[in-house]
Amino acid sequence: MRAPGKVNLSLRVGPLGPGEQYHQLTTVFQAVSVYEEVVARSSDERTVTVSGPQAALVPTDATNLALRAVEALAAATGTDEGVALHVDKGVPVAGGMAGGSADAAATLLACDALWRTGLSRAELLELAATLGSDVPFVLQGHTAMGQGRGELLTPALSRGEFHWAFAVRDTGLSTPAVYREFDRLHALADDPREALRRGGGVAVPPDPDDDVRLMQALRAGDPHALGAALHNDLQAAALELEPGLAEPLAVAQDAGALGVVVSGSGPTVAALARNRQHALVLAAAFTASGVADRVLTATGPVPGARIVAED
Ligand code: ATP
After folding, report:
1. pLDDT digits over 130-175, tens only?
2. Domain coordinates of the chain in residue numbers?
3. CATH architecture entry for 2-155
4. Which residues of the chain have pLDDT under 70?
5. Can you name the CATH fold of 162-300?
6. In the 8-state DSSP scheme, what is residue 58?
7. Is 61 a catalytic site residue?
8. In contact, 134 and 150? CB cutoff 8 Å
9. Membrane-crossing residues (predicted)?
10. For residues 260 and 236, what is the distance between their CA atoms, to the nearest angstrom?
11. Separation CA 271–CA 162 (nearest Å)
12. Hey, CA dihedral for 273, 8, 203, 184, is it positive or negative?
């Protein structure tokens, strides 16, 4: 199985209502050609092993998102079958690119095929949403608007190929911690000027109409217009927690990126390039300035999780 990571072209976060556990979001996802590879083999047990440059950061116990997907599918279909999974991680861990979600999506498809569950695509998507708000998107891939917690998807039209360079950090940012910081910044009500200075202020309910220019840029396949429309409401919170992120943002701008944005909850910084060659120039600028632990280049949009080989 192969499943892509994602970049949020736009991420708009609403206020947390009283008693609410999750923020209402409007986001536009693009699946990018940075992949998780998952191998699933029949087994009596349910296990996962992990490889890749950041494998040491990934748990292999029941908290691993791939094993959570196994348990969810087994519970939904009433099977006692096992599976031995191996995940080769290409997507940065805790990088805001949905690597764990991609593992869960790939695992759902793999076990569905291995166990011949007969679930429909709609049932798999519903199960995916119980595992995490990004899991339905990485199952579907391409480009989509996500609402609710991000799991309510509407496919979006997109023409052509966009080119990216990503500055990856070894120390990840926890998504819940970034949302807590977002809430703190927006709660600086006693000092509204300070809140605004730090990118806080009153959080407004997200409105899909805010992304009209972005959707037009995608339909036109216009990287310049897309670069100008990139947006992330979590960026200020990610920068508060990790001020060093200002460096890759500035480096990409200086190197002529059409747009640069923190991906999701960060800390990966995504820079939009004019073309493939320019993506390599941006990647070289990240490397030369020492602002990233690792650099990736990729294109998007790409398809979602799929079986690439079967024995
Ligand atoms: P998102 O963009 O969806 O918010 P992310 O890319 O920032 O997610 P992940 O890499 O998906 O973050 O995982 C975040 C945390 O979840 C990791 O720090 C790790 O401890 C835990 N985790 C559990 N299962 C996995 C997995 N299969 N791959 C990566 N991390 C996992």
Report:
1. 999 999 999 999 999 999 988 899 999 999 999 999 999 988 899 9
2. 2-155, 162-300
3. 2-Layer Sandwich (3.30)
4. 188-203
5. Alpha-Beta Plaits (3.30.70)
6. S
7. no
8. yes
9. none
10. 14
11. 11
12. negative
Which of 65, 71, 179, 180 for mutating ligand 1's site (highest number of atoms within 8 Å of CB)? 65
The residue among 122, 114, 158 whose CA lies nearest residue 140 is: 122
How far is it, in rounded angstroms, from Cα 292 to Cα 166? 9
Q: Please report the pLDDT score of residue 277 as a whole number.
A: 98
Q: CB of 1 closer than 6 A to ligand 1?
A: no
Tokens 């006692």 identify what position? 80
Which ligand 1 atom is at minimum distance from the Cα of 175? Answer: 4
Q: State whether residue 103 is helix, strand or coil.
A: helix
Asked if residues 251 and 289 have their Cβ atoms less than 8 Å apart, the reply is: yes
Tell me, letter by letter, the H, E, C secondary structure of 135-179.
HHHHHHECEEEEEECCCEEEECCCCCCEEEEEEECCCCCCHHHHH
pLDDT of residue 206: 78
- Nearest-angstrom CA–CA distance, 220 and 232: 22
Sign of CA dihedral 246, 252, 254, 258: negative
ipTM surpasses cut 0.90:
yes
Query: Rounded to the nearest 5°, which phi and psi values hold at 56?
Result: -65, -20
CB 248 within 8 A of CB 266: no
Question: In a 3-state reduction of DSSP, which class is residue 93?
Answer: coil
**263 contacts 104 by C-beta, under 8 angstroms:** no
With CA atoms as reference, report the closest residue to 29 among 210, 154, 177: 154
Q: Separation of 256 CA from ligand 1 center, angstroms? A: 31
Looking at residue 199, its pLDDT comes to: 62
Phi, psi for residue 252 in degrees, rounded to 5: -65, -40
pLDDT digits (tens, 9 = 90+) for 83-96: 999 999 999 999 99
pTM of the model as a whole: 0.93
Question: What's the token pair of residue 271?
Answer: 């820079």
